[in-house]
Amino acid sequence: MLEIKNLHVKLQDEDKVILKGMNLTVETGKVHAIMGPNGSGKSTMSYVLSGRDGYEVTEGSATLGGKELLDMEPEERAAAGLFLAFQYPVEIPGVGNMTFLRTALNAQRKARGEEELSAGEFLKLVREKAKTLKIDADMLKRPVNVGFSGGEKKRNEILQMAMLEPKMCILDETDSGLDVDAMRLVADGVNALRAPDRSFLVITHYQRLLDHIKPDVVHIMADGRILQTGGPELALEVENNGYAEILAAHGLTEAK
Amino acid sequence: MADALTAGPGFVPERKAAAERLGAMGLPGRRDEYWRWTDPATLNAPDPKPAQAGEAEAPLFDALDRLKVVFVDGVFDAGASDDLSLAGVEITRLATSAPGWAEGLYGTLEATGQVPVKRPFAALNTAQATDGLLIRVTAAAAKPINLIYVHKSETSDPILHHLIRLEEGAELTLLETGPAGARFNKAMEVDLAKGARFHHIRIQGPDQERRAVTHIFARLADAALFKSFTLTFNGVLTRNEAFVEMLGDDAMAHVAGAALGDGRDGAFHHDDTVFVTHDGLRGESRQVFKKVLKGGAIGTFQGKILVKPGAQKTDGYQISQSLLLDDDSQFLAKPELEIYADDVKCSHGSTTGAIDETALFYLRSRGVPEEDAKGLLVLSFLADAIDEIEDAALKEEIVARLEDWLARHRS
Amino acid sequence: MQDADIREGVDRETVETVQNMGSYKYGWETEIEMEYAPKGISEEIVRLISKKNDEPEWMLDWRLQAYARWVGMTEPDWALLDLPKIDYQDLYYYARPKSMVEKPKSLDEVDPKLLATYEKLGIPLKEQMILAGVEGAENINLEERQVAVDAVFDSVSVGTTFKAKLAEAGVIFCSISEAIKEHPELVQKYLGSVVPQTDNYFATLNSAVFSDGSFVYVPPGTRCPMELSTYFRINAENTGQFERTLIICDRGAYVSYLEGCTAPKRDTAQLHAAVVEIVVLEDAEVKYSTVQNWFPGDEEGKGGIYNFVTKRADCREARAKVMWTQVETGSAITWKYPSCILRGDESSGEFYSIAIANNFQQADTGTKMVHLGKNTRSRIVSKGISAGQAQNTYRGLVSMHPRAKNSRNYTQCDSLLIGDKCGAHTVPYIEVKNNSSRVEHEATTSKVDDDQLFYCRARGVGEEEAVALVVNGFCRDVLQALPMEFAMEAQSLVAISLEGSVG
């Protein structure tokens, strides 16, 4: 599904290299987790994949279902099936959540040459999805993320995911700032969306999210690349021993 | 221009006084502080610059049950207008009547509004207006009145003056639509008695070449409500002044505006000049002005909250913001507070900048194409101003107009 | 000292000051024999001042040009000030102590009466001392806390301390009259290059008749080894003070400069029209702090200084940095807008201000931030406090020119009203001419918070002290931007200035 090969990325305005030959393959239907200390380049990777400005790819490639992602505009990537759940979802005052979702959904459908949904069909769909995800109808009426609690924002991200039905979902530290209950709700939402044709890449700093979203593969990332890959037990190992050992094995020390 | 004394049948002393006021102050020049960012030359000139009428726009508020009053290039069009009769409302024309209730009131609010800052075009208007409506509301008006200004002649130079008096507890919604003429000088005096409620919604546009200088003078008695919203797009030059005096206690005045201009269509210069005076207890005022500018468009805002001595418990707020969609446009603002009472809560804010890149990326990452995403963010930016419209149906119509404009002005 | 200690010290000081409060404590007069130029202004007077200062021809020409221009100018009337008519022919434009006619060669030769004057003001002109009036000063490392002082008395500088030590570092610190003679190349190059002779009515008047002031030059790469300060004292009656300060901070250099001002209590108003020019070159940084405590007039609004000041810094090259901090508590009328021209790319300007107006004082003050270079930054924090029947106006300009891409401004102006007879006003001008820059302006006006007052009083703090404490909290952002000695002094001034404003 997602294939990253030898990806090198630097900041556009500075001579700071962030990804230094990153390789990663996420198979269709699998859940991969990336863990790593702060500053390892995890978030940068998610931004580069989804096409945020400010980064320069100096080498390498990233493909989604065989198509080169890095040449596409952000909206083309979304239409191709990529979804990034933001660590800090953006507030957009004055734009209703429903309007936003419908605009996004129909834009993607149009880009894929599919029929746009009528207002009625859309409404039905969004109510249905909100219900399965236990999202308050009230949240749909409010402006995008404005005045939402941390948990509500993250659940809104999951609702968008459910509506847009992407093939490849990247969750960027979705657990950050959530208490245990909120995290469980979000994880339940993600689990409900697991499907044989949908892959996930869960970026997290802590193992606790992975108790709820069980990964098939765990990667440890530091210094802009994947250092080690293993099964779920690797996450537990990090939880118990921290990153120091793994870092040391690769000649790195933990950043301050 | 019509002679002051022959313009209409009545208000001769009032018109004479206004002509004297104008004579004493003269027309504004570039060096006037109040005109530092807007060149009044084309408004001052004896003749207007020719302006072609734009394509007729889709009719506004068509679905709404309203009383239509049509002026074509400033001339009353009886055929296109509804009967000037409405339950709870007396409506006559300035050109043909001088009802007793209006005597001694016509021009009074304008005269008050000349202090502390001169507004010569308003005095000119009072002296020389050729027509307009005299509206007295004694109860809740059965439906809104819609003034429709049609622009046909390339050289029309209409001067209209409306005088509106809401008696105690009366209510009226007034809609104004259309470009009116090549150069439009309009003044509106709104006198609100105790507990009266006045809603005003105006859409200025869509002619590209038109010029306009407009004034609203409002006076609020106890617990009166005044709410005005203006949507402007296109126009070489628009200067909208509002002078609102809250004399009574517990009054509420909200003045809002959204202006969108693309200089690539021709010049766009939009000026909102607002002066709100608190002279009663517990008054609440809001000034919410937003501008979306591109292609060398210029937006200016001069806003003031004046809190007079003794106007305690005032709650005054003012926000002026502009979104510059490209590097050529300009925003010039002077948001002022002048406060002579201590137990008040007054604040203002002003921001200028480009579209928020993070929000743009967020939308695009959800599959919304860049131009649509920008459109959504423009609507988001304008939301606070549009929210000042209370009526949901009217609001929807305004938003539809905005969306339409945005769709036609992509980069 | 830790920040927390300073803060606590400041709060304690506030309470103590209020408890011991007398009124304006610098209102006494020094009895000293003076020499005056004839009253009034004319070309002859301009020539006379130039001659008294023993000036070269070019300086006189410059003054005369300014005078010729001034004659045709009119006083500005745009400020929110009720400006009494000033009779410019009824003033002395030059007054110096007779003992200063023969310039003393060193501080030891200065008239003891003059030295005593500064001693009494808390500014001893002795090199071993630091700025006095600071509680706990004895605990401070003296080497670190030395402050060089240029003392200006009416129209002349009476002496400058630490000149030798500064010269070792290559720093020139002297009176401007001396600089005109000793460093003409620097003065000629920079004088009038930031505030042109014809800039405005008062600056032009100053250009014609300035009598003295301070001059600073910090050479490239030099961190000025101590803080520099000028202390202005108006003593003589019916005399205008027109001082001129020129500071040049060369590439990569740094200097912190302090300015203080006081004058005796008098029934008649006196004019003070100063010009300060600062030139900041590449990577250089200047901090300029003022505590302005001119006599504000009495409780009935009689007397006081009319303070018309033009202060401007030019960040002429890349990454130049200027920070203005001012505490304006004195003067009957203040008209003052310390400004920054952000010409160099990535240059930055900051303005922190506390302006207090009590009784019949009128203040119209603020700043201009003119962004010309790319990636320039500015920040404005203004705290205005009005009490009694005073009027206090913040007036400012933030201008982003088309070329000033990616620049930022943030402005916060807060006003506090004490009593219902005073006024607080905000008049900002914002001009943005490119879209990559971001400008944010916020302003609030409120009264002293009743809950805060009640809370203080419930803990046993008296009403006046409570107000002073609350005001102190309101001003804290700005007080913290001041050098420590000034923070203390400013703090007590805040309290004194508000005397009698409650009840």
From TrEMBL, chain A:
Instruction: Name the InterPro entries for this protein.
Output: AAA+_ATPase, ABC_transporter-like_ATP-bd, ABC_transporter-like_CS, FeS-cluster_ATPase_SufC, P-loop_NTPase
The reply on keyword ATP-binding is yes
Coiled-coil segments on the chain, per record: none
The record, for SMART domains, names: AAA
Q: Where is the ABC transporter domain?
A: 2-248
- Entries under CDD domains matching the protein: ABC_FeS_Assembly (cd03217)
GO MF assignments: ATP binding; ATP hydrolysis activity
| Superkingdom of the source species | Bacteria
Pfam families, sorted: ABC_tran
Q: What keywords sit in the KW lines?
A: ATP-binding, Nucleotide-binding
PANTHER family per record: ABC TRANSPORTER I FAMILY MEMBER 6, CHLOROPLASTIC
- Sequence similarity: Belongs to the ABC transporter superfamily. Ycf16 family.
The identity of this protein, by name, is Fe-S cluster assembly ATP-binding protein
Q: Organism, per UniProt?
A: Rhodobacter maris
TrEMBL record, chain B:
**InterPro entries registered for this protein in UniProt:** Fe-S_cluster_assembly_SufBD, SUF_FeS_clus_asmbl_SufBD_core, SUF_FeS_clus_asmbl_SufBD_sf
Pfam families cross-referenced by the UniProt entry = SUFBD_core
Single GO BP term:
iron-sulfur cluster assembly
Chain ranges of the SUF system FeS cluster assembly SufBD core domain:
159-381
Which PANTHER family does the record cross-reference, listed alphabetically?
A: PROTEIN ABCI7, CHLOROPLASTIC (PTHR43575:SF1)
The molecule here is called Fe-S cluster assembly protein SufD
Automatic annotation (TrEMBL), chain C:
Q: Name one GO biological process term.
A: iron-sulfur cluster assembly
Domain annotation SUF system FeS cluster assembly SufBD N-terminal: ranges: 164-223
Q: Which domain of life is it from?
A: Bacteria
What InterPro entries would the database entry show?
Answer: Fe-S_cluster_assembly_SufBD, SUF_FeS_clus_asmbl_SufB, SUF_FeS_clus_asmbl_SufBD_core, SUF_FeS_clus_asmbl_SufBD_sf, SufBD_N
Task: Report domain SUF system FeS cluster assembly SufBD core positions.
Answer: 232-474
Matching NCBIfam families: PRK11814.1, sufB
Under PANTHER family, the record lists: FES CLUSTER ASSEMBLY PROTEIN SUF, UPF0051 PROTEIN ABCI8, CHLOROPLASTIC-RELATED
- Into which family does the record put it? Belongs to the iron-sulfur cluster assembly SufBD family.
According to UniProt, the name of this protein is Iron-regulated ABC transporter membrane component SufB
